[in-house]
Amino acid sequence: xxxxxxxxxxxxxxxxxxRAWFESLRDRICAAFETLEDDLASGPHAGLPPxxxxxxxxxxxxxxxxEGGGGVMGIMKGRVFEKVGVSVSTVHGTFSxxxxxxxxxxxxxxxxxxxxxxxxxxxxxxxxxxxxxxxxMLVTSQNWFGGGADLTPMFLEGLETEQDKAEFHAALKAAxxxxxxxxxxxxxxxxxxxxxxxxxNEPRGVGxxxxxxxxxxxxxxxxxxTQAVGEAFLDVYPRIVARRMHQFWNEAQREHQLVRRGRYVxxxxxxxxxxxxxxxxxxxxxxILMSLPPEVKWS
Length: 299
Prior knowledge:
This protein has 299 residues and is an alpha+beta fold. The protein has a single domain, classed as 3-Layer(aba) Sandwich (oxygen-dependent coproporphyrinogen oxidase), CATH 3.40.1500. Helices cover 42% and strands 25% of the residues. It has helices at 8-39, 97-100, 159-177, 183-194, 219-244, 251-270, 273-280, 285-288, and strands at 54-59, 68-76, 81-94, 111-123, 130-139, 143-152, 196-197, 202-203, 207-214. Strands 1-2-3-4-5-6-9 form a seven-stranded antiparallel β-sheet. Strands 7-8 form a two-stranded antiparallel ribbon. The longest helix has 32 residues, at 8-39. The N and C termini lie far apart (49 Å).
């Protein structure tokens, strides 16, 4: 049974807590990524200046208060991160009649409120895996959390890939296990199913976790789990980058990276629900498509 919404005062407080958390996590992730830019000591781009995030605020069209909100999109193009976007948005309004039936709790009047953080990083080095992470809170006639994180090495086999995969999954598993014994198995399998390219019959990367419509009946516990996912990501991914970013790579590896990025584009434009949600709710197009890499090839 869906959990009934709390009083307006309690719901407003929960919204404020979630929004503040997503913004705080954004700030700490951006700081960690800029530190990695500062720390690059070798490789073909070590002589470039370290990158810094540029933030751009955007507003969603507001019609008499019924629609509105907005967000801040942060983009960095540096010497470690070829392009990384970290965005936070908080929006509200009414889903279109043709879209509301696909959103839990929106089939009635279609009203919604949503806040979340979304991150995609494409790296200069083909030896450093790309990554995606997002967490969000959504309110319709129901209230739930969703999100996850997944790792996309450019080379899906090899000892280094296996090391990165094991470390990434171990961090997410620890976050899951601290909250519910079956979360990791459920959410890992969900991630494997979701981040899959059916037209190529291949996974996008080496997985992670994915969850949606998380409403256990204990809002505080669900929020704490969502925070744990963000903390796990902030802990593990910078460590993986720091271990790989100093390694030298060659043009053949770069060419392979550009082709693999094509898979990322295909998934995000053909299958990603977050992309569809942003487009259907009148979000900022630049922020919605920040996940696309700056350079890509198809073979």
